[in-house]
Amino acid sequence: MTKQDVKDRLTVPDGVELVYSDACDLPVGVHDHRRMSLKKKIVLLLVAIAAAAGWGTIALSRGETVNAVWLVLAAVGSYIIGFTFYARLIEYKVVKPRDDRATPAEYANDGKDFMPTDRRVLFGHHFAAIAGAGPLVGPVMAAQMGYLPGTIWIVVGVILAGAVQDYLVLWVSTRRKGRSLGQMIRDEMGVVGGTAGILAVITIMIIIIAVLALVVVNALAESPWGVFSITMTVPIALFMGVYLRYLRPGRVSEVSVIGVVLLLLSIIAGGWVADTSWGVEMFTWSKIVLAWVLIGYGIVAAILPVWLLLAPRDYLSTFMKIGVIGLLAVGILIDRPEVHMPAITDFAKNGNGPVFAGNLFPFLFITIACGALSGFHALISSGTTPKLVEKETQMRVIGYGGMLMESFVAIMALITAVILDRHVYFAMNAPASMTGGKPDSAAEFVNSLGLPGSNLMPEQLTSAAAAVGEHTIISRTGGAPTLAFGMSHILTDIFGHPEMQSFWYHFAIMFEALFILTTVDAGTRVARFMMTDTLANVPGLARFKDPTWTVGNWISTIAVCALWGAILLMGVTDPLGGINVLFPLFGIANQLLAAIALSLVLVVVVKKGMYKWAWIPAIPLFWDVIVTMTASWEK
Question: Are 133 and 141 in contact (CB under 8 A)?
């Protein structure tokens, strides 16, 4: 069948052009040149009005209670406008995608690391890989500064900086054979600068993975329900991988339904297991045990073929992530909870907050990284994702759209923190060295902060812990417990049955651990790519360039896991809570990595002669350098 025969058989609307390649006579894509319809213009106008109303209410409300609904409207409306117009501008003027150009997944397909992947599965993998602890931990910790600064940075930052970085790094890597960030820096900036860049990137990557793993440990420690449910996701993902590759190839929707049903069953079964004596004995793991298990899991996940565990598990977790966050958003719109945290707190002005120390500038922009701008995302956008992209036109949805979705997660996390009673919030998020870890000492500490409202009673902390089926909620740092606690309140208010609050809390904890764990395994695999690139530049070790060399892959994987595992074990045994000490380090390292990635993008844009559009990566780079250097100097 010739190209003309295909055209004759297809009904193509006016303004739509079929795209062909030299490889076959079938169309490989379409170019839609049609103007925006009146209906779409009206919808976008209504979205813009809703966003403006949300921002106006948030910005102008002083000394009065704000409803959390306005935060949701401001965020969602801004995301839609940004994706429709700004992301499209970047696509047209900088990326200029061509579906007739083969991607690395096509011309380097090895069935292991490089493989064309359905855009839905790839979006799920990419989103799951980038959306880890950051959008949960950062906004919850930054809530001590008030709801307004965090909301502005999360929404404006993602549209102008974070999503831009993710999209453009994915574009650069896809056009360069799916190379890692460190290797591209070496290629574009020379041997000296490139070598320094590679070492900096791999060091930062190790720190980031360790912090993400620490959040998983804090969320699952002493929780048999969560440990059982998370453990079950591994065999479910293996089944999905085999099902899609051998049993029913291409049946994405079919395996999705099966996977989601099995996932929900594992959550329900986790509650049953946690109520049995054998379940408590078998699945109640200490932080140190969990740390060693995570290190072993990281080794296995980084070595197995991407289609067998990593991609199906990330795709499965994406259903869970988007579904739960969507449920929470709908719950907020129905329940309409009030925000108890003020727009800006005194802690933002004097920098002596109990959750973390530091002034609003620059530490708000360091603490909230994922959700606004995160250098870690550049590693995923130059790691697994460019090796799986089917078509270049899919990069906007995957790169820019995936980051917008993560930003929405950050907004939800911020909301669940600021709707809590302020006394309870600080009792949950201050380290045990301050609260003492007991209801009496925690209540005394929180009451000494001078917060408005009635003093916190020890009985309130005890009853709050009992309501969610936990021994204690004091000093449950890491963001995940606070999000779960706030979410359980909202869903219990909507559905009733106070006895169900325990279920909602553990459901959210399991969801968050699944959320974060996907970033740990994907991050370890990306770190393996970076480690092989690093070792390949050492004289005499050029064989590490060969991705099919199994021994080299094993050596790189074990080295990476040993490095981040050592930091994880130090954080687990830290008497100050680990996360409160390591997260500022994570934030600075993460934003420094973003500066490196944006510098690479700027160099590529300038080398291509796109001087008129160099401001697109230059603006977020300039801001990020100022913030990161200031924070590094002050710390």
Answer: no
- In sequence order, which residues have a C-beta less than 8 Å from that of residue 272 and are 6 or more positions away? 279
Please identify which residue in the block is written with the tokens 């790519």: 529
- Strand, helix or coil at 339? strand
Q: What's the rounded Cα separation, in Å, for the pair 424 and 456? A: 8
Does pLDDT of 502 surpass 70?
yes
Q: Quote the CA–CA distance of 579 and 433 in Å, as a whole number.
A: 13
Q: How many CB atoms lie within 10 A of CB 261?
A: 11
What are 129's two structure tokens? Answer: 């890989």
Tell me the β-bridge partners of 17: 31
Average pLDDT score over residue span 507-511: 76
Cross-strand partners of 32: 16
Does the pTM of the predicted model rise above 0.90?
no
How far apart CA 343 and CA 336 sit, in angstroms, is 18
Q: Compute the half-sphere exposure of residue 212: CA atoms within 13 Å on the CB side of its CA.
A: 33
Residue 94 burial class via C-beta count within 10 angstroms: exposed 0-12, middle 13-18, buried 19 and up? buried
Whether the per-residue pLDDT at 38 is higher than 60: the answer is: yes
Q: Helix/strand/coil (H, E, C) string of 101-133? A: CCCHHHHCCCCCCCCCCCHHHHHHHHHHHHCCC
> At 55, phi and psi to the nearest 5?
-65, -40
% of residues, the chain, pLDDT over 90 = 38
As a whole number of angstroms, the distance between CA 199 and CA 601 comes to 19
String of DSSP letters for 255-286: HHHHHHHHHHHHHHHHHHHHTSHHHHHHH---
Task: Specify the 3-state DSSP secondary structure of 542.
Answer: helix
Q: What's the average model confidence in pLDDT over 30-42?
A: 83
CA distances from 437 to 449, 460, 477 (A): 17, 14, 12
Name the 3-class secondary structure at 391. coil
Instruction: Kindly compute the dihedral angle of the four CA atoms of residues 604, 609, 610, 615, in this order, to the nearest 10 degrees.
Output: 70
Report the distance separating Cα 354 and Cα 376, nearest Å: 27
Please tell me the distance from the alpha carbon of residue 556 to that of residue 543, in angstroms, as a whole number. 12
The count of other CB atoms within 10 Å of the CB of residue 59 is 14
User: Which of these, 447, 444, 439, 441, lies nearest to 423 by C-alpha position?
Assistant: 447
Which residues pair with residue 338 across a beta bridge? 67
| Chain centroid, CA 367 distance in Å | 14
Q: Give the residue from 585, 599, 632 showing the smallest Cα distance to 181.
A: 599
Give the residue ranges of DSSP H helices in 309-438: 310-335, 346-350, 360-367, 375-381, 395, 402-418, 422-429, 432-435
